[in-house]
Structures are given as C-alpha cells and as structure tokens.
Amino acid sequence: METNNSIIHVILTGGVGSRLWPLSRKSQPKQYLEIFENKSLFEMTVERNSHLANKVMVVGNVDNHHLSGNVMDKTNTSYVNIVEATPRNTAAAIAFAAFASNPDDILIVTPSDHIIDKMEDYNKAINEAVLKAKDGFIVTFGIIPTKPETGYGYIESKGDRVISFREKPNETTAKEFIAKGNFLWNSGMFCFKASILLEELKQFQPDVYEKSKAVWEASKNGFLDLDLSLEIPSISIDYAVMERSKKIKVVPAAFSWSDLGSFESVYDYLISKNHPVDKNGNMVIGSGKHTTFLGLKNTIFVYTDTANLILQKENSQDVKDIYSALEKINSDLLN
Which of 56, 113, 287, 319 is most buried as measured by Cβ atoms within 10 A of its Cβ? Predict the structure, then answer.
C-alpha cells in the first residue's frame, strides 16, 4: 500500500565533468564511466542508497537520460524518471523532484558522481538527517575535511547549526578554515521534506518556484517542455534556499567522500584501490599498454581513442581550461 511518507532517493545526473576530459565527454560524462572496478559512479550511487530509501527518482537531461536508464536496468531498479529539456541548475532540478513527490515524502538528494567509503558512517549520517528532516529542517551534509582543499565549497558550523556557506577558497583561506576547526566541506547532498523545501523556495526564490511548477505541470511522462524550461532562472539550490533559509541544519559527517572532480582525486582513489603506479608516482589511466615515464614524477597519462592528456597531478584543476578552450572552437573532441 502506498504510504504518504516515502523516503525517496533523488539522483541528480547533470554535469559533464569538464576537469576529467578526455575521459569525460558530453556523450559519456564522468558519472557513467565504468572505470571504478568495472562500475560507474552512477551505479555505485544507486547501490549505496538502495537500502536507505523505498523509492528512487532520477533527474537527468535529454542528452544523458538513456545512459541513466542503462544503469537502472543493470541494477534492476525501478524509478521515477524526470528528464530536463535544458539544464537549469540545481534549484530547478530539486524543485522538480519535490513537485513529483507527496508533501510529506522525505527526499535524500545526492549527485551521481561522488565516491563514498566508510558505509557505517554514511548510513549513520543519512539516518540522522532523515530524523531532522521529519522535524521540518532542510539538512545539508558537511564532510569533516582531511586537508585544505581548494576545489570544494565550505560550511562554517557550530554543532548542527550553519553559520555561513563559503565559496571555494584559495589555498591560504583553505588553510585558515582547517586551522579554525569548525569548517566542513560542502558535499552537495541534502535531505528534507518535499513540502518544506518548496515552501522555502517559494519564499526566497518565487520566480524559480512558479516557473518550475509550471514546467512540472506541463510535463509528459516525466519529460519537461523546452520553451517553458528556458524561462526558469538558472540558480543553484545553495543560493536559492540554503544560504537564506532559517530552517537549515548540517550533519557533520565522518564518512570518506570525494566528488572525483579532478584527476588528482581520481589518482588518490585509484591508488587506494591498488591501481599501478611506478616508483616515482606516475600513473596511466585508460590503457593497459606498457608505458614508461623517464625523468617525470607524479605525472598522470590519460589515454582515450581520440585524445590523450599528460599532466602533473598538481595541475589537475587546470584541465577545465583545456575543456573551455575546446568548447570555444566547438571541438568534436568534447563529444
């Protein structure tokens, strides 16, 4: 029998993983690459949350929803499919999921491209967040940082209270955050009651609320209309709600987490899974061919059929600049 308060796992599948080019392409974004023990990040996301929720919702886009469908078939998971006609950022994507739910449903919203270990700690954090969500709070997950990372946003907190959200810092600021001891990495994961999220969105960003509602009401079998979608302001859930609502709580989480947003984080993850490196820390990704590095240290060689990338591990964040340059000339190498 259908209850009025399902726990729904909402998977956000947007993003092209520009910092993981040439592995990640528009036709095969990073969350669908089966390079993690023959599984994709998307598949691992589905499996990790399967026992925590009794429904699954996938918010994808018209270009990649067939890839999501393949994973859901592979894992034999039934799901509600929401297909965006055009990307409108996370506020709209999350609003669609909330509109597709009953008011009292608890939504656990996760990206599809993160690596998470220490499952006992993860399950504990989710359960804690669900309890807070039932009490009417919008919960974000703050990861206890292991280093002064410049690739993540931060949450300044005291217990479960959010003091402020901070943008990705430079190295000096990141070190200051770590030294203060009350800053957490912003994981981009959320938990809330559908009705509470929509109430707060309506209050703080009524244009996104009204236009997303119109798009959802005009949808056909989960497919959203392009012309109506283009009217929705493109804004993140952080700006629209999280930084303005008085109903925000944070769960400081001890599970091991990475958004695998750069080759440096992929390198670290693969090392932990015994991926081969030579004595100078050089690694090959994407090829089994014998490769020798001479006079190089901490170099990553990324092999694909149509493009190769050779980079110093420390320069991982700059890969997005290569992606941007190729985008400007509309290069086929992005497809």
Answer: 113
